[in-house]
Amino acid sequence: MVESYAIDSIDRSEVLRYMGYTGQSMSSELEGRINANMERCLSIGVPRGVWRIFDVDGRGAKEDGTPFVRLAGTSLELLGTSMQKHMDGAVAVGVMAVTVGMGVERELRRLSLTDRVAQVVFDAAATTLVERTADACEASIVAAGHERGLFANFRFSPGYGDMPMATQPVLLQALDAQRQLGITLTDTLLMVPTKSVTAVVGLFETIQPSTHASCAGCPCFDFCTIRPTGHTCRG
Ligand code: SF4
């Protein structure tokens, strides 16, 4: 499923966090630049995502002992103890990729040559925007799981824990993400546009401790299609 997301705001406190701000005093000029770059990022960014759900086809350990979770209908395998734990008991897996587009990438490159302060602020805004985009895509997977009577945990990306970055090419291929979203990989497996996120979400027949505990604090809240029906993803 390929989707576009209407995102018209991002959390300023998240932008400050990505900037490394820890409460020091801030000039009104910097305040203005932060606001302006957040606005600019929202106007340039094109939040889009692609996701699919694959049934779990098997699990076990490779000859070298590396745990694996195999998915049906794709060569994508989830490797490592992090995935073994995250997908323990999962009957299906939502696989997702999102990006905010090449316009943001070009602006980051331009600012790196012209205005380093603006680059830092814009980069933080773009990271906040792509994580917000990932929230929206995750909400779609949670809702699709709900329709199948399944409960989701939360998204987990290659590079976290011991989930290998080498997962990226086959994950992107499984979603046809280059054609659908324009995401490519460098030789060192970094995504271009850099403001892109890939992740997997476990889907289970029973509610999980990590299933979004409350709508009030849920990152998917603004994008959730379950809640407006009077139900929740907790059943
Ligand atoms: S907003 Fe509520 S129902 Fe929707 S995904 Fe979050 S916790 Fe679940």
What does this structure look like?
It holds the Pfam family Met_synt_B12. Residues 92-201 form the AdoMet activation domain. GO terms for molecular function: methionine synthase activity. This is AdoMet activation domain-containing protein. The protein is α+β, with helices and mostly antiparallel strands and 235 residues long. It has a domain at 47-102 and 126-227: NADH Oxidase (3-Layer(aba) Sandwich). It is built from seven helices and nine strands. Strands 1, 2, 3, 4, 5, 6 and 9 form a seven-stranded antiparallel beta sheet that branches. A two-stranded antiparallel ribbon has the order 7-8. A hairpin with a 5-residue loop joins strand 7 and strand 8 (191-192). Helix 1 (12-19) packs across helix 5 and helix 2 (28-44) crosses helix 5 (116-147). The longest helix is centred in the middle third of the chain and has 32 residues, at 116-147. It is globular. It starts with a strand and ends in a 31-residue tail after the last strand. Bound molecules: iron/sulfur cluster.
Keyphrases for this structure?
235 residues; alpha+beta; NADH Oxidase; seven-stranded antiparallel sheet; two-stranded antiparallel ribbon; 38% helix; globular; binds iron/sulfur cluster
H/E element sequence: EHHEEEHEHHEHHEEE
Low-pLDDT stretches are none
Count of helical regions? 7
User: Which ligands accompany this protein?
Assistant: iron/sulfur cluster
So what's the oligomer here? single chain
CATH class of the domain at 47-102 and 126-227: Alpha Beta
Mean pLDDT: 95
Principal-axes shape call = globular
Could you give a short account of the major beta sheet? 7 strands, antiparallel
Strand content: 15-25%
Helix content: 25-40%
CATH architecture of the domain at 47-102 and 126-227: 3-Layer(aba) Sandwich
Radius of gyration: 19 Å
CATH topology of the domain at 47-102 and 126-227: NADH Oxidase
The count of strands amounts to: 9
Give the helix/strand class: alpha+beta
